[in-house]
Amino acid sequence: MIKLLYGRMFRDGLDQEHGLARDRVQELARRFADVQDEVRRRRAAGEYGFYKLVDQGPTVNAIRTFADGLGQAHDHILVLGIGGSALGTKALLNALRPPAWNELDDERRDFFPRLTVLENVDPTSVKAALDRIDPRRVLVNVISKSGGTAETMAQYLVVRGWLEQALGAAAYRHLVFTTDPTRGALRELAQRDRIATLDVPPEVGGRFSVLSPVGLLPAALVGIDIEGLLDGARRALERAEIDDLLQNPPALYAALHWEADTSQRARIHVLMPYTDRLRELAEWYRQLWAESLGKRVNRAGHQVHSGPTPVAAVGATDQHSQVQLFMEGPFDKVITFLTVESLGVDVEIPRPSSGSELPAELAYLPGHTLGELLQAECEATSTALAQMGRMNCTLRLPDLTAATIGEAIMFFQLATGYAGVWYGIDPFDQPGVELGKRLTYAAMGRAGYEPMDSHPSSATDEA
Ligand code: PA5
Fold it and tell me: What strand order describes the sheet that includes 268-273?
């Protein structure tokens, strides 16, 4: 079970000057009754659709059948998608498959396929991926809830042309779409061209959809235990039913971060896993927290321009990059460490076998393991931050199993849903991305693309 250690959010756990007053937590706990009520009311009204993702038995069976059958006839899975349709899959691959998955030979991948997620429309990465992948051996999973996102549709048209050139009329057999059950251009194309499809539940938004077919199909295709993911998610959900804030970790995480933002101006929320295996999970969380909470208006329609800024970091790497700022910069951050009790592997730091003596200042290393060093660095960084008056907390994961990752994913989704209530905003829309989309369509709609004058100014404003 995931544990939230939060004593270092309070003044008495820090330098006695900075951080939250201890008694604030009682006030938050008292107010939580209304927050929990609002979540329940909105769930009953059809919002918060991601809660239902733990009950999708028939969908899981369909995914399993597809993955164990047709899926295994391919040795490369190419996912086309962006934002919530891509980041979760990358996080699952990173956490639950061995590092450098695509570089391993068939045997070391247990004969599961390689997986590439083509997130961007940068021609340099698209061309490189298509040059590398054999179209005869690929299964392309096009993922778009709306079925019309410009980047994903452009990727699709490029990839479809590439498939048709190599395979002719058989191209459609290498495609599977994950999209809305009835709406959108992708659904229309699937029906017209007899392409296999899976549904994105309409009530689940993109960034909350990794535990739907959006993430589950690619995960199952590469051998990830998707039933385990959902078991873990269920565990998180059970704890979120608890009405006592102090016993409900995702709700407490949301409340403490909201309190730190609004009463201490700690508007930067850093998620810092101490393992490379959760690097992509931190990137996924960044989108979830940013796109859900960064809003111009609140539920009442008043301008609030609210929202914390999430930052992803990785320990110990970022101790030599961002941690200087976290220690001594402005008091505007909360740092959440994400630690794993058992990484499943460790590497001993040996003494030189040549018999040569180590310089005295390195003598502390041999006899320990890299895992011990990583853990010591995390504990030392947390303690040092506390001594410098910097709010920090730790989410402790027991291991890197599918159940634990499913629990962590659901934990952050639940926390985001609760934070939406504390901030008084709708965490499930994203009106701010619409304007950029409309301007892109306008520019591409012209005959022959001409760059927009995106910085209208006199020539003196150019350097
Ligand atoms: O969270 C969201 O809603 C977005 O990040 C979407 O996932 C992203 O814009 C892609 O949308 P779609 O899946 O409709 O292509």
Answer: 3-5, 392-397, 333-340, 268-273, 309-312
Ligand 1, atom 3, residue with closest C-alpha: 206
Q: 50-224 is classed in which CATH architecture?
A: 3-Layer(aba) Sandwich (3.40)
Q: Which of 320, 361, 450, 455 is catalytic?
A: 320
* pLDDT, tens digit, 9 for 90 and up, residues 259-318: 999 999 999 999 999 999 999 999 999 999 999 999 999 999 999 999 999 999 999 999
The full DSSP string for 315-369 is: TTGGGGTTHHHHHHS-S-EEEEEEEES--S---B-PPPTT-PPPPGGGTTSTTSB
In the annotation, is 291 catalytic?
A: yes
Using the atom order of ligand 1, give the atom closest to the CA of residue 214. 13
Superfamily name and number for 3-44+229-423: Glucose-6-phosphate isomerase like protein; domain 1 (3.40.50.10490)
**CA 84 to ligand 1 center in whole angstroms:** 5
Catalytic, 76? Answer no
Has 333 been annotated as catalytic? no
How much is the pTM? 0.96
Domain residue ranges in the chain: 3-44+229-423, 50-224
Q: What is the pLDDT of residues 222-249, one digit of tens each?
A: 999 999 999 999 999 999 999 999 999 9
User: Fold identical between 3-44+229-423 and 50-224?
Assistant: yes
How many angstroms does the Cα of residue 47 sit away from the middle of ligand 1? 17
